[in-house]
Amino acid sequence: MMNDFILFLPEFYFTIAALIYFGLSLKKTSEPWALQKWALTLAGIGLIVTVAASRQQGMLFFDCYRVDLFSQVFKVLLAMGTFWIIFSSSELRGIDGRQHAEYYFLMFICTLAMMMLVSSVELLTIYVAIELSSYSLYLMVPMRRNADEFSETGVKYFMIGVTASAMMLFGISLLFGATHTTYVSQIITKLPALFGQPVAIVGLVLALAGFFFKLAVFPFHIWAPDVYQGSANQVTAYIATASKMAAAALIIRFSALSMGASHELVNFLIVICVLSMTFGNLVAIIQKDIKRLLAYSSIAHAGYMLMGILALDGRGYAAAIYYAMAYLVMNYACFMVIMKIADDGHNLQIKELAGLHKRSPLLAMTLMMGLFGLAGIPPTAGFTGKFLVFAAAVEKGYLWLAIVGMINATISLYYYLIVIKAAYLLKPVQELPAIRIDRWTHAMSLILVALMVYLGVFPDQFVNITEAAAKSLF
Amino acid sequence: MDAIFKDPVLLATVVGTSLPFLSMAVILIFTRHNPMLSSRISVTSIVVAAVCALLNLAKVAGASHPFRFETAWMSSGNFHLTFGYYLDPLSALMLTIVAVIACLVQIYSLGYMSGDPGYSRYYAFQSLFAWAMMNMVIASTLLQLFIFWELVGLASYMLIGFYYEKFSASQAGKKAFVMTRVGDVGFFLGIIILTLGFGNLGIPDLNNAPGTGTITTGFITMAALLVFCGVVGKSAQFPLITWLPDAMEGPTPVSALLHSATMVAAGVYVFSRIFPFFAASPNAMLIALAIGTVTMLLASTMAMTTYDLKQVWAYSTVSQLGMMVMSLAAGGYFAGVFHLTTHAGFKALLFLCSGIFIHEYHTNDMRVIGKQGGRKQLVPMICITVGALALSGVPPFSGFFSKEAILGALNAQANPIWLFAGLFGAFLTAYYSFRLIFHLLFPKGGIEEKHAVHEMDSHGHKEEHHGGLFWAMAVPVMILACVTVVLGFAEHSLQGYIMAGGGAVKHASTAATGGAAHGVVGHELLVILGISAGLVGIILAWFEYGRKGASRNGFLSYFPPVWKLFDARWYMDAFFRWFLDTAIYSGLTSIFTRNDRRIIDGGIDGICFFTETGGRLFSFMQSGMLQYNLLIMVLVAGLAMLFFIV
Amino acid sequence: MTGFPILTAILMSTVFGLLTILLIPPERTKLVKQVSMFWATVGLILTLWLYFNFDHSKGGLQFVERVLWVKSLGIYWFHGVDGINMPMLLLTAVVLFTGVWTMWELEYRAKEFFALMFLLVAGVYGMFLSMDLFWMFVWYDVSLFPMYPLISIWGGTRKEYGAMKLTLYLLAGSALILPAIIYAWVQGGAITFDLFELQKIGFSLLDQKILFVMLYLGFGILAAVWPFHTWSPVGHVAAPTAVSMIHAGVLMKLGAYGILRIGMTLCPQGLGYWSDLMALLACIGIVYGALVGLAQTDLKYVIGYSSVSHMGMVGLGLATMTVSGINGAVFQMFAHGVMTALFFSSVGYIYDRTHTKMIPELGGMSKTMPIASAFFIIAALAGIGVPLMASFWAELLVFIAAVQVFPVGGIFAMVGLIISALFMLRVVQRTFYGERNEKFGHIPDVSPFLAVPRIILIGVILFFGFFPKVMLDVIQSAVIPFVGSF
Amino acid sequence: MNSLNTYLIISAFLFSIGLVGVLQRRNLIGMLISVELMLNGANLNFMAFNRFLTPEPVVGQIIALAIMGLAAAEAAIGLSIILALYRKMHSINIEQAQRLKG
After folding, report:
1. Contact C175 A407 (CB under 8 A)
2. Which candidate, A228, A162, A280, places its Cα nearest to that of B621?
3. Is pLDDT at B456 greater than 50 in this prediction?
4. Which of the residue ranges A368-382, A436-450, B517-531, C82-96 would you say has the lowest mean pLDDT?
5. C246-274: average pLDDT
6. What is the pLDDT of residues A97-119, one digit of tens each?
């Protein structure tokens, strides 16, 4: 029993945190900065707890819930993402002060849900976890204050989300019918035999649709641009970093369990992957709003992750995990800069970056490193991630896929360079004051830059961890 | 290293040939702002060089076999190149000629160039030139020779374009460099082919190669002709004649240096240098002979129409070079070399004399000079006449002997046409050179004393006449005049000197002097013909320009088209210009440039544009209308199902 | 790895330079320059030490440092020098040193400039030193992307267009390189990125064909192989002086070096298959570059196209697959690097003073600034291939090999010599001779201090022109066994 | 008549109606209801499969119950969001909400 408790410790902890903030949200008035400070503390402890529990292994709840290195790695990533987002929620002007408590409450709930997501191995559990995380996001997105032009975001996100989840549920029901079980492991064992009959196929595709919706892979990406653009910067950052982790983990686990899945499945993944990369990068070229641009780039990056996943072997999953890790860091670096610059919570346009290198060289450098990382320029983490992913794909014989990926990387470099150009080159229209950054942010930017370079240059131990995690999948 | 000090010959060679380079370096780096010092440095170094050259001349005479010093320079794979000196009678003689002429010219320049803003630069380039030239002469391998040959070209480019503010000057320099480059590429290719086919570029080895029979005649012909391209370029043979007259844009001493003994003679020198190799291929010799002849005649005709002193000498240089090539090609090895020697003397003399006139009267037009009383300048007037006499082959001047030798060589050819061509050339030469002399001596309508101007600038020169500068110019001229007078009588000693030990050469030349063993005409007759050809030319010139009430315009002026043809250099320049403009500039270049901008670059930009447009198109997929997006999503899911089921 | 890791030290000299520069407050530009100068000097000294302690009689890979870096993938921190990258290192050190010195007058955002420059050079050193495919690619890209800010911030004509074009174009090239490298790794059993172990494995003919063409096109873009050369003039025109120096002088060599080091080492048969194509493109490039150069009116465009022509020479040498050819190619890389650096630094001086590099607007420069002009003219002569300048030997060797292997192409390429002479002299004439343009009459000549770097470059050109042995012995110590391994 | 296929057909029918409704209705409430239909289709599936294929354990029914709960929550959230939107643009017609695109 005690052992089980240890296994469940991170989730339990975050439940407590959520409850605390639920209580706080009932209060009439509360100091935003105090809320943030406490939330930060809680998240920090949560991170420590998660790290502490990272070596646990075992099954819970009648084998619906699997705790292994894979899930724990992702839980660490989730906790870290949450911690970072809360860290830079210090100026949460995008959301009405009265709702801050709820904001943190929902964020903890969502983190909890996603933690459950990454270790649940049973369809109902997965479904419940997905819904839980989605619901909290549905509520976080429309929280944005005085943003009339974005008021539609919430409802769009909601509608797409529920549709997708309905499709997924229907798919799950069919899978259940086809395989008479809801345990993914058993389903997978039975599935290859059933690829003949439509029921299984339809079920699988519909179920995958729900997962891809979380990861925002083409064509289930349609919510992403609007949501990224329409919700408060912090929320966007949260969706772009933490929830991406969960989605990636979900898909990795699902396809990892589908060992020996049919050739069609792989082809399907390839198609999706190429489409996502190409679509995301092409459309990103013409964006003016940075958050929307990053939305499209995130679609492309989902494609890159898929490239690792579709290798369907240990190295591939390891690559994908590493990629997710790198993506978390780089993407957060970019968003942190954005949140700092747009500290009044408005939507940042690319041209507003003009003269950033004067206003705050450090932030400019962080942004540049982050973007170069996303573009896959060595020696940043992004390059190593791409390298591993391509290596996995080529090892499976998809040389052309790697070439397509690299061409896409070149295309993506174009719009990243446009942003960098704005930050380093353009003269601002009117002289803007220097951005003052507290020493924490200062430290954080340095840490992020260091981390990106370190991940890129000394990937050895991380690669080992990811490979161990990938092994723990089977 | 210490080997250098052991061997006096080597020591002399090293010192003599490297001092000019040092002086150049010193001048360029340190003493640019001190003209006097620069000139002193340069002159001393060249004097030393000349002395060393003379020493070597003597040494080589004594030696039984040629001196050869070599040291590894570079090696790549199985291709090895040595840097070295090869001193045999020929190179020793040539070295002496070069050093002496360069020396005299530099001394002369002390006067001529005095007060020029680019004084230091001038001497730096002079030294560079002397250095390159001397090293070329004594190079031990063909490639080393080529290297310094190129440097000679470079130095002459600098010297010809010395007055670089003048567009024509820089143009002429460029023209000289590029046109000789055309030939050099052939030369270069020839060297490469020799490397690949024969593998050894040592000059004596090349000369002995035909005997050993390691290489086929066809190969020899090809290589020889390619090398001959270089000769054509440097020695301004047909069709690459026209750069040389333009090269007169340089200061007169430069013309004297370049066009008497050194740069342009380099081509002929190379020819004689590997003469046995050439001789092994009758076809190559024949072609060379033809080219030499054509060159000589064309150049002489051109010389008949111009009124520019230096131009006349330039053309005559070309024609004389043609002469030498002819004689070499006809197997007259010694004759060619001997004419090279004598020509060096009297052509330098002629140029330097005209230099004095030009310096005095600030014009190149012979008529003007004559009008302004050119004949009053006794020293140059006498000397120039001596030179002209030598040039037109009048005994007892040096030119006479060498020309006779050449005619002898031509005479030995089976086909008499070459001999007659040679005689005709001699006639033309005599004609145009005395046309010039008479222009100076008996100007049209006598001398008009333009007191105001003339007084003043003659007054300006008054000091000079007695000052050192004038003598700096006069002395070298006199020396050369004496040389011109006496050199001819040294023919036989020289012959003995050159032919000594040159077994291959002897053999080759006897082999090459084709069919008619006893010649077309007898020896005595030949001498008479030779002299008479010259005299006829002089007399004709006298009738047209010299005698009282002469018409003062040549018989050519009765045939305007011909005159025009000659005056326009047989339209060769026009042809080159046309070729350059149409084929290169407005042809390939513009096409390629457009291709670069439009097709290649345009293609790249097109791809980028295409990508961006693709982005715009795809972005329509993200319509604002929620349900369209949902529709897409559902459709793709449906397609995926079909993809699986089907 | 035994003893002091000098190669890593050379590499780190730039990295430390980068870091130390980052620590300096931006307004203290003087200090920035001094620091950069210091680190550049350190690099130069170390490299010289290396050059003169390199034992060319022994040949082979020396000063080897080999550490396992990423175990599961078989990535090594593997450095070594042999006769092929030794000259390149020397070149890099010299050009960096002179480049920093040349930019001494830079004031605008100097800190960022020198930081990026050191980052770039770190990439170059790394690429030259590393013998591990992974690191090679990493350094390769590291050396590419700083070009964007360097050009777009400090550049000149159409800088943003030029910068974007150059960066994207070159990185598009690496879109072929990375897959190729990974493919090689996979074909080698996915256990090692060590170049020489992969060489030992030896690929099948088909793989070699695929790999080589990918690598050739990928690196060829950077080496300005003919149809992919257009970025080079545009980029050079846009770039600031020192960047042009490093870029044309060193970075373009990375391309050729990549073809030689990776492409030809891993797939000699592939090269054998594609060599005709290579030679063809190279010959076209030689003549084409010279011809297009004839029509240019912008000094930097002229130099850019001359680079195209000269890099064609390198490609031709490589395509011959003979000792002389490859010797010549490597020597040409070195010679052309120094020469172009000299070109750009002298043009840079003129441009900084007159604010124009349009040939028609200049003219008579030799009167105004004799020394600066002399520098350019010497560079031009080197470009023509005048003997006793380094590039002459390179061209000689290349042509010997070319005429032997591709007679027609070789002879065709030699015609390029005439044209290049024509266009170089044309530029010299239009720019430096003729009537001086009084507008620039007042401009001072190069100060002795700023003359030093140019003189160093000239010295290098002449030294290796007079004593080619010093370099050729080093080069062929590697090339002879290399060619033997085909 | 009382066979699995009947239920499957009905559920597929429900699901399709829901899907079409979502795609075609412009009224947000209508769309929400359509989504509920889709969920119910799924529910029916679970029940049917449970009934005909896997009598023991009663997973299907459990899932169905869970889904009902979730659906209720979903409806609540959806309605609240729609309400918020209505406050802002005084309409619940999705055609009014087309600002974000491209």
Report:
1. yes
2. A280
3. no
4. B517-531
5. 89
6. 778 888 888 999 999 999 988 88
Tens-place pLDDT, residues D65-99: 889 999 999 999 999 988 888 888 888 887 777 77
Name the minimum distance, in Å, from the CA of B622 to any CA of chain D.
5
- pLDDT tens-place string over residues B18-35: 888 999 888 888 888 888
**Euclidean distance between CA atoms B411 and B416, whole angstroms:** 7
CA distance to partner chain D, nearest, from residue A205 (Å): 15
CA–CA distance, A329 with B311 (Å, rounded to integer): 80
Of A128, A142, A169, which has the smallest distance from its Cβ to D84's Cβ?
Answer: A142
| Domain map (residue ranges) of chain D | 4-96
Q: Is the pLDDT of residue B595 over 70?
A: yes
3-state secondary structure of B235: coil
| Phi and psi based region of residue B142 (left: phi greater than 0; alpha: psi -120 to 50; beta: remaining) | alpha
Kindly tell me the burial class for residue A162, based on how many C-beta atoms sit within 10 Å of its own C-beta (0-12, 13-18, 19 or more). Answer: buried
CA–CA dist B185, B206 (Å, integer): 20
Main-chain dihedrals φ then ψ at residue B380, nearest 5 degrees = -65, -35
Instruction: Collect all residues from D whose CB is shorter than 8 A from any CB in A.
Output: 8, 11, 15, 18-19, 22, 28, 31-32, 35, 38-39, 41-43, 45-46, 48-49, 53-54, 59-60, 62-63, 66-67, 70, 73-74, 77-78, 81-82, 84-85, 88-89, 94, 96-100, 102
Q: Write the pLDDT tens digit of every residue in B229-284.
A: 988 888 888 888 888 888 888 888 888 888 877 888 888 898 888 888 888 888 88
Nearest residue in A to C27, CA atom: A358
Instruction: Compute the distance between CA of residue C429 and CA of residue C294 in angstroms, rounded to an integer.
Output: 13
Rounded to the nearest angstrom, the minimum Cα separation between A172 and chain B is 15
Nearest CA-CA partner of B483 in B619, B323, B347, B606: B347
Beta strands in B311-374 (DSSP E): none
A260: left (phi over 0), alpha (psi -120 to 50) or beta: left
- Residue C399 has a pLDDT of 92
State the average pLDDT over residues A174-197: 79
Distance of CA B453 to the CA centre of its chain: 38
Interface check for B631 against chain D (CB to CB < 8 A): the answer is: yes
If residue B69 lies in a helix (H) or strand (E), which one and from where to where? strand B67-76
Question: Would you call B634 an interface residue with chain D, using a CB distance cutoff of 8 Å?
Answer: yes
Six token digits for residue D61 = 């029914």
Residue B374, token pair as written in the block: 């050119």
Strands C62-70 and C75-81: antiparallel
Transcribe C377-428 into DSSP letters. Answer: HHHHHHHHT-TTSHHHHHHHHHHHHHHHH-HHHHHHHHHHHHHHHHHHHHHH
Q: Give the chain C residue whose CA is nearest to the CA of A414.
A: C168
DSSP per position, C10-41: HHHHHHHHHHHHHHS-TT-HHHHHHHHHHHHH
By residue count, chain B amounts to 646
C387 touches chain B (CB under 8 A): yes
Q: Is the pTM of this model over 0.80?
A: yes
Q: pLDDT-based confidence at B459, cuts 50/70/90?
A: very low
| Three-state secondary structure call for residue B141 | strand
Task: Let me know if residue C1 belongs to a domain.
Answer: no
CA B507 from chain center: how many Å?
A: 29
Q: How far is B185 from chain C (nearest CA, A)?
A: 7
Which residues form the domain of C369? 6-480
**Six-digit token string for B73:** 């320079």
* CATH class of this structure's domain D4-96: mainly alpha
Helix then strand count (H, E) for chain D reads: 3, 0
Task: Report residue B519's pLDDT band, with 50, 70 and 90 as the boundaries.
Answer: low
Predicted local distance difference test score (pLDDT) of residue A259: 56
